[in-house]
Amino acid sequence: MSKLNRSTLSSLDSAVKVPGYDLAAVRGGIAHIGVGAFHRAHQAVYVDRLLNQGLAMDWGIVGIGLLPPDAAMRDALRDQDYLYTVLVKHADGSLEPHVVGSIIDYLFAPDDPEAVLSALTDPAIRIVSLTITEGGYHVDQSTGELDLDDALRADLVPGAVPATAFGFIVEALARRRAADIAPFTVMSCDNIQGNGTLARHVITDFARLRDPELGAWIEANVAFPNSMVDRITPVTTDTDRALLTVEFDLEDRWPVVCEPYLQWVLEDEFCTGRPPFEVAGVQVVDEVAPYELMKLRLLNAGHQALGYLGYLAGYRYAHEAAQDPLFAEFLLGYMEQEATPSLDPVPGVDLAAYRAQLIERFANPYVADTLARLCTDSSDRIPKFLVPVIQYQLAHGGPVHRSALVVASWARYAEGVDEQGQPIDVVDQRRAAVQARAEHNLDEPLLFLADESLFGALREDARFTALYTAALRELHTHGARATLEQWPPADLD
């Protein structure tokens, strides 16, 4: 068995694609904060494609981890000379492994924060990209403004060693400004509508609290392109590691598994240059918004439509629910009748084909994406993915009965017990508050909608609440499957 590292590349199974470029010749041009599975299956793959074409040799990726759990990624990558395997799982069961070499280093900030700042101040680093999750942007959901929590306050203390992504970015930009070094582009790759616009807003606001002139300089000189990213990338399991070993005689401490589909739509706004991403298949455009709304309201909200109902019904994987005609029909109905009317035209995209493709992607049994993952951090996801669809439809007199059922299924899921009486591990940054409201689903069903930072004024809309309370009642009385079979009731249709 071959342990993955530079010395073993030439001896790997011929079915494993390996870098066709000189790994030692790649130089850093991108620093990426938040090196998780998605980044390694997505942005790093695009850079690897360019490197395999002899392009972007000065755009290698320096990974940065800020949180204690990131030490595991540091150790896994360091042990393998920063190489890792992307294992693409096709719907027919075939496997496509390839080794990615675009990450050339990994810095763990708690080990040496000054090393991170030195890297971010290096003129060679011209892009700092982010996958720090929705919660990493420190946004007050009710106001859309910067939420100055304890971690950010600590980073504002004069002379403090940064601990947050914002702290490192702003300190590095301050040093670059003082040294007359051109700023880097901040490229958010998180699954947030207007991710670049949001990053600009909260980072410049944070910088102004430290130094108003620095904040103004960042706003005037730093580029924050918006982007839309897409690839289903489930959590890597020991079974996946074993699969690499059995099928390809390859030992990889932390491979990435993903679906074949890959998409990145990126706004062409960079202040210090960029790689020729379009050569690698990135859609470089002037306006990302139509694409990101399509993805957020069809794919991401579609995951929510499938996730809670599927889990409550006893399924544990996305493909199990997506292969069930009852659940697939409900999901397609949501996408066609409720989500799609809320979208602007999407250049070059056949939305009917896109919707059908989503069902096929969700139904891929070999990706084995868990419904628990889809239901994670719902209080970050539902307000961004689904609530805007509901608000649009209510304003235009359109149907909302499927969306109401999805919200009700979240409320039922948040009770923490499934239909078989088994506990549900509700993973959510607002878990305590969400579950406290869900405890009253039977005696005060509208309480779950009381948080306006999550639901806006939906609690005050009689048409929506009639559907929502009926859905919640049906879920408690008959369960998810029986509810779907007769939803909506004739008197509410």
TrEMBL record:
Keywords: NAD, Oxidoreductase. Gene3D superfamilies: N-(1-d-carboxylethyl)-l-norvaline Dehydrogenase, domain 2, NAD(P)-binding Rossmann-like Domain. Residues 288-475 form the Mannitol dehydrogenase C-terminal domain. Residues 30-278 form the Mannitol dehydrogenase N-terminal domain. It catalyses: D-mannitol 1-phosphate + NAD(+) = beta-D-fructose 6-phosphate + NADH + H(+). It is an enzyme of class 1 (oxidoreductase). It holds the Pfam family Mannitol_dh_C. Coiled coil: none annotated. Its EC number is 1.1.1.17. GO terms for biological process: mannitol metabolic process. The keyword NAD applies. GO terms for molecular function: mannitol-1-phosphate 5-dehydrogenase activity. It comes from the Bacteria. Belongs to the mannitol dehydrogenase family. UxuB subfamily. This is Mannitol-1-phosphate 5-dehydrogenase. It comes from Microlunatus phosphovorus (strain ATCC 700054 / DSM 10555 / JCM 9379 / NBRC 101784 / NCIMB 13414 / VKM Ac-1990 / NM-1).
